[in-house]
Amino acid sequence: MIAPSKPVRKRQRPAYSCIECRRRKVRCNRTKPCGQCTAHNLESSCSYKENRRTLPVCRESSGVGGPQQEDRRQITPEDPKSSSNSPRASTLSGPIQGTVSKTRVFGHGHWMNTYSLVEGLSSLQPIGEYYDMIFQQANHGPLDRVAETVVQCKQLARVIKQRRPSRRCLPADIHRFFPDREVINELVELYFTTFESCHQILHRPSFMTEYEDYMDHPETTESSFLVQLLLIMAAAGPLHGDANVRSEMAIKASTWMYISQTWLSAPLEKDRLTLKGVQVHCLLLLSRLVNRLGADLVWISAGSLMRMAMQMGLHQDPNHLGEMSVQQKEIRRRLWYTILEMNVQAALDSGMSPMILDGDYNTLPPSNVSDDDLNGAGREIHRESTALKPSRISFQSLLASSLPLRMRATRVINSLQEEPSYDQVLALGNELASACRDAAIAIDQAAFMGDTDPAGQFASSYCSHLLRRFPLCLHYRYAIKAKTNPLYSYSQKACLEAALDLVSLLEDDLYYLLLLTGGGMFRDIITRGALLIFLELNPEPEADTSIFARKRNRARQGLLLQDAHRVVQYAKDRMLRGDTNVKGYVFLSMLLAQTEARLDGLPTKEPTLKALRESLDTCHNILESMATDTSTKSMYPDFELWQTNNMQSPRASIDADFDFLDDENLNFDFSDCYFPLQ
């Protein structure tokens, strides 16, 4: 018998034309920028894709961030002429689409990259000039006093951070320093009615049984439950209605989180490979985000948590793991999807991949069964009868339905090897928009049929935030390009709508408390949304020539300006709640002053410079008050046993430079196309 012949593989010719000419199917002269892109005012979009069959030059260097190199740089494709004749081959298929910062690399989902996209826009001048003079140059010229204020702010921020406790052993009498039982009851209730709506970590009836036992016999309580209680109070503390309680919890929360981390990373690691250990890990990551404690490193910890969960088989559906109760099955499913949600959110923030594919797990999504119903469930849950109902909604199930899509979007956003085509971005953006619409409809139906209490509104806001930040990140860089290239105008519209949706979260009083203290995703309004609003209020001068365009812009400037004022006040309120974000508040204050001057038809330099001085003075006064506040001392009389005077906290040692967003050192630099290490 004659074997079937193999299909002849066609040779694929290497592409030497730029991406724009290939898309438009026109002849390219292969320069940079090419003649076609120059003729159509597309110089900024002219780029070449590396030929995968011809590998780029492997450049010699002393290592990433070596002494002869810049520590931070934006990676861009090489000249196609130089790369096509490479004498040597590299193991890489092409340059990464991201930023190298010292020893780390970031994809475009990382917030550092958002501001590099606006470098060179005339609508942000003269802010760039003043910023370079104050924060970059050695000679500050007429702004010497302003520069001295910046130095003082740096010193005060370091003093504040030196008081953070280091990790030590769990004290045997830690319960003696808990708040009153009434306050603990309120914090536990607050936690379950807020965070558990989207992250179902604990089974409430089981926890409350242990909680009552602890209140009756605190000396015999298991350490795992005690650590859970510590983290619940740390997470719910910023949401308490009493300002005195919030202040007390803010002092104790960081110590409790270090205690929990010490317990979790004990030498006997196998003792932590339990469902309670996974729950503690989830609560710890949540508390770190809520309290801004190492929030920029949560992706690393989430990876450890995910591997811990996979080691325990949570990525396999319980139906395949032998006999166990319905309650155990549901708890495992809830935990797994909580871990996946935390992981994808942290990956988006870190500019990295989720590191897991849909095929890596087969666990079914959690059902819509309440904790009380779960206790009385039979041998199995009938999912047909637990579908989402208008009068009752499972936010975790709602999030789980779009989780594969959002993981795929995160991989596209943060890809370091290949930039997606704009058609791919539009298709993915439409899917994300559809998922957000479906979630909004379900939430509105549930709100219409049920009670709209503050906790329910918080859950809706939290779920919306978890979803809507993905289309914002996906379209962000294209929305910036739309300022000079109308081809991307849809991204500008989609991005602005997502940003305004995030700003509307400030209207939720309870969720606003979380936005004041949170790190990571809870800074989206400042790190992403604010800039889009101000760019919309400050169109490019050469672009705003049509009388109809000016009328349309003027019609919506009033509401946008209100949102801009709200965002600036929000940045100031974050500082009043313990944030050491100086540059962020200063930058937004300067943008607001420039915007109002332009709307009034006035010169922008003097108002912008005045806003710079006044906002820096405000920051200095706030930090000085924080540094001299005696209430920030240790909560334990014998706290010296917990830390040494010369030891920096893990968070402080991450970046010894001036901390901007707590431990995230953002640099609004318009003279360079990179940003320093977070």
TrEMBL record:
Compositional bias ranges of the Polar residues kind: 82-99
InterPro entries cross-referenced by the UniProt entry: Fungal_TF_Env_Response, XnlR_reg_dom, Zn2-C6_fun-type_DNA-bd_sf, Zn2Cys6_DnaBD
Keywords tagged on the record: DNA-binding, Metal-binding, Nucleus, Transcription, Transcription regulation, Zinc
Gene Ontology CC terms: nucleus
GO biological process: DNA-templated transcription
Biased composition regions of type Basic and acidic residues, renumbered to the chain: 69-81
Gene3D superfamilies registered for this protein in UniProt: Zn(2)-C6 fungal-type DNA-binding domain (4.10.240.10)
SMART domains per record: Fungal_trans (SM00906), GAL4 (SM00066)
UniProt GO MF annotations: DNA-binding transcription activator activity, RNA polymerase II-specific; RNA polymerase II cis-regulatory region sequence-specific DNA binding; zinc ion binding
UniProt-listed PANTHER family: ASPYRIDONES CLUSTER REGULATOR APDR-RELATED, HEME-RESPONSIVE ZINC FINGER TRANSCRIPTION FACTOR HAP1
Protein name: Zn(2)-C6 fungal-type domain-containing protein
